[in-house]
Design goal:
Elements lengths: L4 E3 L1 H10 L4 E4 L3 H7 L1 E2 L9 E2 L14 H7 L8 E4 L5 H11 L5 E4 L25 E2 L2
Length: 137
Amino acid sequence: MSYAGDVTPEQAWVALRDEAGAVLVDVRTRAEWFYVGLPDLAEVGKQPLLIEWQTYPDGAVNERFTAQLEAAGVAKDAPVYFLCRSGVRSVSAATTATQHGWSRSHNILQGFEGPHDDSRHRTVAGWKVAGLPWVQG
């Protein structure tokens, strides 16, 4: 079962702004939230939901991921936008959420930081490069 689709960071921002029930789930690790930063949804009256897809520091897949989504009160019919660093872990999170009943699960392409440039810096694309609001963790 495939997830509902991919969206750009800008499309996710518009959905989060315009859809009252839309939820952003940041699936990066605690270390990434703290050291790299977080999407800032204050302008749209929301906060990102922080649920690791892979746990830090061991990198194991979080076996409680869908239970934590449910415990956080994310409605199964809500539009849910999954974000990671570059858009890879969030595909797995969106797919798993869909398999467990969240029918409107979306992957945010390019993630929070995006892919590497030629110098191996993350300056090409993603939430931060798009100029969307974020804060240091």
